[in-house]
Structures are given as structure tokens and as C-alpha cells.
Amino acid sequence: MMPDQKTPAQHTAYWEKAEPPVRPSREMLRIYQDYLKSTDLWQRGDWGLLGCTAEIRSLAAQHQRPLCCIDIDPHIYEATACLCSPKPNDTFLHNNWIHADCSSSFDLIIGDGSQSMLHPSEHNAFLANVHRMLRTKGHFFLRLQVHQPRHFHSTQEILDWYHEQPQQNSINQAIRSLLIIHWLDPATGTIDPKTFNENIDDLYQQKKLSDGEYQELCKKRMVFSLSYTTKEQFEQSIDSYFEVKDIQTPDDFYWAEHYPIYHLQKR
Ligand SMILES: C[S@@+](CC[C@H](N)C(=O)[O-])C[C@H]1O[C@@H](n2cnc3c(N)ncnc32)[C@H](O)[C@@H]1O
Prior knowledge:
alpha/beta, seven-stranded mixed β-sheet, 10 helices, about 40% helix
């Protein structure tokens, strides 16, 4: 799924405003740290990052690990550098995760939502290439997007639940994930920006959203197509490539249960 084209300044502004799960939450970062401690990877080895997530670049800088960020977008590496702390000392490879030719280059690869940016028809090629890029017994930390369990059966139920909350927290934080999951194409588990953004417009036209709610949702128009899976499907798809070492799920934002982080090891 191709990302949209943004200027570097628009990129920085987009990532600055992004909220979990688009940017990792504190609890997600704690889980990544925990996985690092359960191995000795925080003090050894070469790391690869699928994307340029500022928090992961910061993690590598904190541990003084060499990190190579791989991204299909030529501007994102520069654009996220100013969001990293301490200052990163990493490198950039402008390439597609599926085609990047980095055989046996990394002891650890981290992907924060990376597979979810790809169409399911690309998932096997993606997993095969991550496997190829890792050294023997290399580790892979992957934050996933899963659409189970489903708590709501209609858009109206989701909106009713939100309106019943005693504290009206940000509508994006509270129900964006639920709307995305509810509107996934059942055949593929994917959603594209056009569908999501048009569905939001329809809800407003049907007067199911207030002016304020609509404006807030419109501040974060969807820009990437996304895919969701189930834990069962995912575990089946990785079985020939990776062993599951651990699965932890964050709990510090709404519906965080849909965003487990897998610690995998190369078979
Ligand atoms: C790491 S992903 C996910 C980020 C975020 N944590 C989330 O959940 O949305 C975001 C990045 O993936 C990049 N990207 C998407 N598909 C790609 C591909 N096939 N190869 C390399 N980079 C890709 C985009 O350019 C974008 O910078």
C-alpha cells in the first residue's frame, strides 16, 4: 500500500500530532524495553527498523546501538529526526521492506505496525524478507493490529457507547480504532483512506456526529491503507519463519488490546 506524498514539514507535523497506536504509547515502549532486557540486545548487535518511528530511533540512541531505518518514503527519515531524543546516530535505507536486499544484516528488527501497512497479499513476502535480513537466531519485535475481539456490532452502537461516557475524551482516541475495525473489508481485513474518510463524512451528513466531533475526526484524515489480522492467522503465517518468544499487549490507551507486540525469533 503506497504512502501519500507529503513535504518534510507536513511529515513532521503529522507525526507530532499522531497518537497511539500510530505512535507508540509509553506502555508500548515499556514492552519494547522489556523484550530488549529479556535478551541482551540492548547492549549488542545491529538493529534494523521498518520505518522511521521516532520513539524507536530514540530507543536505539539511548542504548547506543547502530540502527538502520528502512522506509519507502525518502523524506520521513529527516522529518522524524527532530522528534527523537537523544539525537539519533542512525542510518537510512530508502527501500521497500519486501525488496530490501540486506541478507543477514541485523540481530534485531523492530516493526511498529509495519506489517499492517501492507496488503495481506504482501504479508508472506514481507515475513520472508524480514527472515532473510536477520542473522541466525535473530529477533523480530512486531507490533500488530488485530480485529478480535469485537465488542460492537454497528456504527451506532460505537457512537452510543462514546456518547454515554461520563467524560467526553477525544473522539479520535476513544473510538477511531473501533470505527476502523468495524469498517474493515471482511474479505481482506483492510481499509483504505477513501472508505474511512467518506464514512466519517456520511456520519456527519446523517447528523450522527456533532460539528465538534466531525471537526476533530477531520483533523486526522486517514492517509495510509491499513490491514488487520487475528492472532491465530498471524501465528499460522509466521510459523515456518519464526518462533513466538512472548506476546505482550499495552493497556494505556483506548482499545489497546487490538495492538499486541510480538517478540519473535528466527527459526
Ligand atoms: C512504520 S509504519 C507504521 C507507523 C505507525 N507506527 C503506525 O502504526 O501507523 C509507517 C511508515 O511505513 C512506511 N512504509 C509503508 N509501506 C512500506 C513499505 N512497503 N516499505 C517500506 N516502508 C513502508 C511509510 O512510508 C511510513 O513512513
